[in-house]
């Protein structure tokens, strides 16, 4: 065999095939031989892939007549021999044979030296022995080992002396050494190359730049397509044909690095007296007739632009002028860095004939390093310019959509279905109707919008600000390789929505994953990304720099609220586009609200109550308010819509919920007796021409809607969780048809407060800003509430999977006081005392309380001495329970000793109590001062 000439490469490669004599392998015989070798490789591969251990072969006797091997008996025997001998390495033989077939078919003679043949055998034997170390992984039903019997013999022979660890190390080292013999792989060169790349990491682009952008990727030749060959000082002198090939390779590298300046920087390959090519990296190329001497100083290439051409346009070589110009990409900078690393390698080698001494600068670095630095800076400038063009393309089709403000309308009128003011609603639990007012009494008047503060003029963002914001958003999206178009901008009172249409292939999840990155890039408090229903765009919601406040009067005056035909309309606020939003509580039919402290939850509850008061009279809606914090709903104390005084005691709240369950059952019985299905049908039956046969004793009064508002559910769940959860679940499941609706709010949306039983019966939910994603999933079943802005910013789930972002309307305490003062002038509330009473207290009240409590007289004395009546005082002084103390106070109220419940304040002690104690003790008593 003839030893082939060594060629320096960067990595190991298989034996090189050189061109042979033109009379043999370039003939048709060579093509036929390549086809035969290819068919043999394909046949061998099929035989190995279809091998079955039960096929008849030299090591297997006949067990069945079925043949599994696709090549037949020959294929079965051949595959069995290879697998038995080499194991898994048998799969590499058809690959190697196929590579030989390709080389022969191309007309190249494959010349392998004895050194390379030895290396190939060493690699096969070492790998076979190494695979045999894994004895627990046999092949084909435990019949063939991974390394075959050859590997098994080698492994057993070495393991007897070296043990498995030593055997593995020895075989691994042998495999590496054999690989060095079979190929040109050099561990020293690989380590040296890695070490020489370290200085480049500290090399920064020079401040000097060219007058035109780099064209490393615009000349139609990719740098990776060039053959990277470097001359080796001690290598044998190459043939003229090889030298010309290497010169062309160097020219292609120069063209890939310097673009259209390649003819003026890299000179043609010249020959030294020793036959080694010498390249002058800074001498401009000239025609052969007028070529400058080798030692001539460098000169600038002529640059005479055409009269019609732009002055700044660089000259384009004729070789690439007809080819399309692809846009530069990020690979430009990486390729320039790679070529700069090669220049530093050649500099460190010190004896590279391609770099002359005169090409070294004062610091000892070759001119290629400086050129690479200039190319790098120019490439970065071109990349920046290309990025700006891409960003401009992303926002070129954007248009701004501004919603016209809704003009104010007149105050809402009384609904057509409202009955006469003389009919007062009566609870079915009270069992008796209250006397109707006389017709001479004035009609009930609804509040007017003049009681609310008008909204100031709203601030608006200019088109320039919006477009600049869109451009910044496009830049940030491009930085993370999320390309698309921003089609529209919809400014709102709080956030601005950018309609982003991603390019084909860009997933929505990839865009949604940029939330935190966009917050950082846009310097925004939070950014929310969601799909826009009905459009092929993604909404990116960015907070405004100047946030507008939404006033309740804007929503009350809007057509959305005025034309709402619902029985319990509520004004929520405005959408992100600035459109008023109102809905009907009767259709929800219950509402669950959650939000952290300061997120706007209490203001939203006030807006909900005021919305009901603006459209419903006391005959239409009765309210039960539960306020464990004693300060949130105290402003509504004394309005005629209250069915019971505001409840502040959690135990009393549980009693009220149980009363609502009983009221629900009584109403269902009443509806069944009349033959209607819901409260609307019942009210129509008793109002519009009642049937005398259906109501022989006269039509009953209309049933009012009952809205139960609980400001803090967590406190109730801590005191009486079982009773509260059961009552809420029953009301949420069945109370809609009889006109009982729940509005429950909490600032702790955890699973022990919003249990699964409660959550399953509240399809309509509102979430303000919460502290974590877990809380958001608890209330909304999805993330997003943790990204809200607070101060009324909410996500509304109207019973479907689509969330609506709404900015809540603001109503101040001054406005609430105006409304409640006006309502209190319409009349006093008519309370139902049984609402807050327990079952024992109700039974005692119905029985007339024939027997007084043994501590009754002592309790009256304590109340008179303290000058106030409260259950906590009686519990502490008499050492009795809450139920007994409450029953004693109720008895005092019936006898006229104390006043009714007045919110969270103690009951007033009347003069009758002093007279009763004076009668008991025989002398007058004066109340003690309350410290």
From TrEMBL:
Alphabetical keyword list: ATP-binding, Cell cycle, Cell division, Cell membrane, Chromosome partition, DNA-binding, Membrane, Nucleotide-binding, Transmembrane, Transmembrane helix
Tell me where the transmembrane regions lie: 32-51, 81-102, 109-134
Stored InterPro entries: AAA+_ATPase (IPR003593), FtsK/SpoIIIE/SftA (IPR050206), FtsK_4TM (IPR025199), FtsK_alpha (IPR041027), FtsK_dom (IPR002543), Ftsk_gamma (IPR018541), P-loop_NTPase (IPR027417), WH-like_DNA-bd_sf (IPR036388)
Cellular component aspect of the GO annotation: plasma membrane
Signal peptide (UniProt feature, chain positions): none
**Biased composition regions of type Pro residues, renumbered to the chain:** 295-317
Task: Family membership, please give it.
Answer: Belongs to the FtsK/SpoIIIE/SftA family.
Subunit composition and interactions: Homohexamer. Forms a ring that surrounds DNA.
Q: Know the name of this protein? A: DNA segregation ATPase FtsK/SpoIIIE-like protein
């Amino acid at each position: 065999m003839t030893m082939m000439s060594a060629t320096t490469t960067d990595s190991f490669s298989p034996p090189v095939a050189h061109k042979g004599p033109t009379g043999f392998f370039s003939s048709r015989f060579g093509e036929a031989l390549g086809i035969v070798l290819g068919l043999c490789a394909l046949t061998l591969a099929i035989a190995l892939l279809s091998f079955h251990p039960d096929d008849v072969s030299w090591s297997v006797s006949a067990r069945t007549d079925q043949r599994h091997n696709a090549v037949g008996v020959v294929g079965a025997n051949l595959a069995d021999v290879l697998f038995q001998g080499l194991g898994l390495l048998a799969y590499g033989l058809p690959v190697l044979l196929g590579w030989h077939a390709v080389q022969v078919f191309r007309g190249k003679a494959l010349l392998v030296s004895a050194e390379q043949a030895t290396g190939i055998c060493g690699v096969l034997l070492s790998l076979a022995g190494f695979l045999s170390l894994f004895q627990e992984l046999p092949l084909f039903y435990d019949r063939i080992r991974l390394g075959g019997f050859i590997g098994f013999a080698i492994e057993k022979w070495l393991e007897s002396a070296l043990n498995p660890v030593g055997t593995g190390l020895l075989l691994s080292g042998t495999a590496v050494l054999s690989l060095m013999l079979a190929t040109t792989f050099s561990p020293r060169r690989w380590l040296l190359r890695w070490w020489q790349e370290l200085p480049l990491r500290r090399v920064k682009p020079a401040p000097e730049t060219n007058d035109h952008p780099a064209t490393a990727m615009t000349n139609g030749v990719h740098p990776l397509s060039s053959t990277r060959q470097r001359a080796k000082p001690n290598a044998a002198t190459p043939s003229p044909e090889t030298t010309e090939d290497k010169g062309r390779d160097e020219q292609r590298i120069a063209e890939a690095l310097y673009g259209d300046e390649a003819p003026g920087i890299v000179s043609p390959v010249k020959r030294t007296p020793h036959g080694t090519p010498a390249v002058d990296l800074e001498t401009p190329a000239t025609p052969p007739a007028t070529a400058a001497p080798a030692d001539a100083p460098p000169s600038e290439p002529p640059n005479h632009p055409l009269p019609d051409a732009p002055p700044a346009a660089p000259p384009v070589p004729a070789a690439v002028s007809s080819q399309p110009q692809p846009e530069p990409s990020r690979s430009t900078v990486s390729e320039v860095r790679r070529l700069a690393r090669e220049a530093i390698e050649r500099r460190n080698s010190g004896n590279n004939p391609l770099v002359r001494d005169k090409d070294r600068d004062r610091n000892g670095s070759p001119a290629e390093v400086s050129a690479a630095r200039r190319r790098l800076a120019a490439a970065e400038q071109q990349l920046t310019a290309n990025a700006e063009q891409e960003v401009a393309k992303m926002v070129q089709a954007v248009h701004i959509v501004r919603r016209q403000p809704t003009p104010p309308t007149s105050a809402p009128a009384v609904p057509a279905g409202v009955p006469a003011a003389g009919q007062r609603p009566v609870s079915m639990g009270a069992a008796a109707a209250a006397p109707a007012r006389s017709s001479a009494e004035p009609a009930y008047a609804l509040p007017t919008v003049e009681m609310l503060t008008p909204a100031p003029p709203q601030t608006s963002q200019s088109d320039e600000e919006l477009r600049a914001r869109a451009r910044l958003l496009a830049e940030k999206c491009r930085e993370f390789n999320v390309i698309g178009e921003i089609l529209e901008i919809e400014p709102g009172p709080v956030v601005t929505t950018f309609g982003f249409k991603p390019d084909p292939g860009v997933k929505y999840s990839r865009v949604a994953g940029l939330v935190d990155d966009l917050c950082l890039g846009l310097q925004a408090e939070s950014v929310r990304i969601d799909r826009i229903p009905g459009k092929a765009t993604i909404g990116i919601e960015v907070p405004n720099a100047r946030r507008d406040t939404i006033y309740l009067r804007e929503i009350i005056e809007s057509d959305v609220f005025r034309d709402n035909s619902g029985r319990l309309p509520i004004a929520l606020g405005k959408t992100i586009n600035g459109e008023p939003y109102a809905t009907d509580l009767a259709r929800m039919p219950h509402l669950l609200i959650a939000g952290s402290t300061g997120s706007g939850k209490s203001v939203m509850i006030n807006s909900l109550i005021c919305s009901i008061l603006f459209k419903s009279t006391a005959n239409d809606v009765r309210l039960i308010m539960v306020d464990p914090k004693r300060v949130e709903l105290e402003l509504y104390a004394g309005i005629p819509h209250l069915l019971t005084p505001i409840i502040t005691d959690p135990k009393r709240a549980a009693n009220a919920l149980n009363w609502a369950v009983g009221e629900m059952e009584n109403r269902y019985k009443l509806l069944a007796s009349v033959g209607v299905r819901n409260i609307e049908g019942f009210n129509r039956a008793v109002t519009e021409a009642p049937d005398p046969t259906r109501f022989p004793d006269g039509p009953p009064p209309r049933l009012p809607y009952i809205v139960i508002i609980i400001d803090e559910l967590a406190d109730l769940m801590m005191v009486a969780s079982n009773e509260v959860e059961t009552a809420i679940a029953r009301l949420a499941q069945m109370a809609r048809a009889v006109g009982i609706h729940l509005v429950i709010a909490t600032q702790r949306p955890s699973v022990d407060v919003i249990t699964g039983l409660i959550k399953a019966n509240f399809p309509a939910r509102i979430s303000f800003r919460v502290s974590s994603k877990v809380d958001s999933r608890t209330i909304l079943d999805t993330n997003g509430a943790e990204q809200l802005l607070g101060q009324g910013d909410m996500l509304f789930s109207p019973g479907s999977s689509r969330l609506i972002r709404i900015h809540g309307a603001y109503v101040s305490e001054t406005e609430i006081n105006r409304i409640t003062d006006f309502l209190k002038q319409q009349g006093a509330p008519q309370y139902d005392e049984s609402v807050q009473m327990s079952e024992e207290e109700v039974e005692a009240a119905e029985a007339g309380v024939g027997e007084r409590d043994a501590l009754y007289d002592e309790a009256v004395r304590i109340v008179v001495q303290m000058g106030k009546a409260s259950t906590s005082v009686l519990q502490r002084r008499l050492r009795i329970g809450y139920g007994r103390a409450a029953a004693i106070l109720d008895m005092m109220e019936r006898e006229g000793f104390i006043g009714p419940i007045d919110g969270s304040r103690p009951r007033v002690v009347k003069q009758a109590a002093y007279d009763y104690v004076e009668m008991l003790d025989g002398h007058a008593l004066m109340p003690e001062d309350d410290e």
